[in-house]
Amino acid sequence: MNQARIVVLGSLNMDMVLRVPHFPVAGETLLGHDLRHVPGGKGGNQAVSCARQGAAVRLLSCVGEDAYGAQLLTALRSDGIDVSHVQQVRDASTGVAVISVDDAGQNQIVVMAGANQQLRVPEAQLQSLLGDADFVVLQFETPLSEVNQALQIARQAGCKVALNPSPFHALEESWWSAIDVLVVNETEAKGLSAIEVDSPANAAQAARFLHAKGIAQVVVTLGSNGAVVCDAAGVRWHEAVVVKAVDTTAAGDTFLGALTVQLAQGATLDDATQWAMRAASICVTRAGAQPSIPRRDEVEALTQPTRWSPL
Questions:
Q1: Residues designated catalytic
Q2: CB-based contacts of 67: which residues, under 8 Å, 6+ apart?
Q3: pLDDT in tens, 49-87
């Protein structure tokens, strides 16, 4: 099997993860269980997910010239990720995310973008990198101008695009035809389709709408309700892998990375989704962002069967 070649354009953050019994209401003071500093950021998480699934990964991102930035780059290098294209700037601090995780494993996140908003990638650099890649993975924690440029250059270079529109932002009309794989959760699916997504049936309606906009492969993730996929063959619902969630941070990034690597290696959308769901199910049983992301052999060892059916 050929090694997948993936370029990730995205954010790098140091996550400050606070464990709490429940999320506070206005005016409430809580005693937390624990506070940890963990490498994160959607771009970093997606790059780690791809690398741990066996891909050759090059990351385009931006950090400050500070301790957090140095720690993030060291962690990425330990996973074999090429960080030679990560920019370091003096006039901004490395991005930070403050993450509260409750005893049910759900999270609330506040992001301070910092240096991520200073990312500017020269056109020639993108042309060189994407001309030699199977996929570019994108999200919205970096300037939308850079996302737009990557979409247009990827189309010219024949590089496929996998996009997760998070934090949510509506897609420009010219972007739809440039996206090969769109991965959205319930909130993002509703934002793009104006369809309430609260069940696999409604997710199927949203997926059909998004597919009709010109996107070849659409995946709507539904947490414990599994995932709905749509392509030229129709719409299918994939049952979730049942686990006890400890922390859902990075589950979506784990899913996207694992899905993209499988597709780059020639898997069908259904097989890639099954694989990505197993990877995400491992992720949520562990605490933290990048430390929770599983390796390929761990996903291979998870043999719990799941069902899928047409909708």
A1: 253
A2: none
A3: 999 999 999 999 999 999 999 999 999 999 999 999 999
